[in-house]
Amino acid sequence: MRKTTRFGLSAALALCIGASAAFAENIKIAFIDPLSGPFAATGTDGLHQYEFAAEELVNKKGGVLGGKKFEIVPFDNKISPKESLIQLQVAIDQGIRFIAQGNSSGVANALTDAIKKHNKRNPDKRVLFLNYSAVDPALTNDKCNFWHFRFDANADIKMDALTDVIAQKPEIKKVYIIGQDYSFGKAVAAAAVKFLGQKRPDIEIVGNELHPIGKVKDFTPYARKIISSGADAVITGNWGSDMVGLGKAILENGFKGPLYTYYAASTGITAAFGEAGKGSLKLVGEGQINPPPNDRADAYATAFKAKYPDDDLGQPRIANVIEMLAKAIEQAGTDTDMVAIAKALEGMEHDSIWGGKVWMRPQDHQAIQNVHIFAHTDGVKHDFDNSGYGLLVESTVEMAGKDSPTTCKMKRP
């Protein structure tokens, strides 16, 4: 009798432990971005920002749904759309329901198509695509879908803000546009031509070219063409090693005008420019760090640097992704019903740690937020690359792109 009683208690205890473990199972987020190759530094920095945001903004506060923690699971896509699709399938096979990616709109285009098809064929295994940095406008226009959410301002919204600044500078009469030869680079060039034509039709575009992404070892020939063109300013959407190579070649060959960029900052980039970039490099983006908009943002930036001294908060929107996802899961009351979570995300208004609000526009799942024009300079509180140089806000467009048009015709489940 005792033996039977002990077995019953043991079985009950095992069931309780099993139920508790299942209840507290982590909510996994697949991070699919380059962790090797020429853009590894950018991908690794993004991974660390996700890990830090998950821990600081969710896990340390008790998690979601009564104790579930966020866990970031890295997948190296080698900046390849084909490899990204392989890693997507691996993540799905592991039961991961949230996919985060940002580096390369070419990759994002492949992922959004694959996720849309997967969710249609597998309604019981649906996933959400959390796009934190791929800004090809097509992703929230003709290619929009219910499962995709973009937390960064798209290329058109950023160029609209950037050209507002250029339009106010009468000394700029000639502009050279250069970028990487893929969907994002083409989108940047098209937006620059469009908005400059609307705001400053007198400006002459003296160059508009694309170069292979991640393959140019020496940008000197491009720099010489830019200088010989007589350009007063340069516009580029280059990122990672391509931004470093192009920017340094332009400055080292004697260019004195402003370089208007999307990604001329953060790990491996800011230190490379140093003093040479002061007064020249301008960047359009979201997420104010200098000056810190509030004590919470200041403390967050300080704590991140203490944990990851060799990395930077170059993509502050990642904090918004994590907080908004946690809020959506809580509102939906589930971490497995992707329809309910997506409906909680769309239309959400979120008070960003970086000041201002983020509004997930429901008609196209494009995040609307403050967009800033930054200057590369010294004397900032939170520098990049431990270089003494960082980004300082020069001007702000509040809730940029709020009324921007979209061709999105979203089909909802």
From TrEMBL:
Pfam family, one: Peripla_BP_6
Stored InterPro entries: BCAA_transport, Leu-bd, Peripla_BP_I
Ranges for domain Leucine-binding protein: 27-374
Protein's UniProt keywords contain Transit peptide: no
Signal peptide: 1-24
Family: Belongs to the leucine-binding protein family.
PANTHER family: ABC TRANSPORTER SUBSTRATE-BINDING PROTEIN, LEUCINE-SPECIFIC-BINDING PROTEIN
Listed name of the protein: Branched-chain amino acid transport system substrate-binding protein
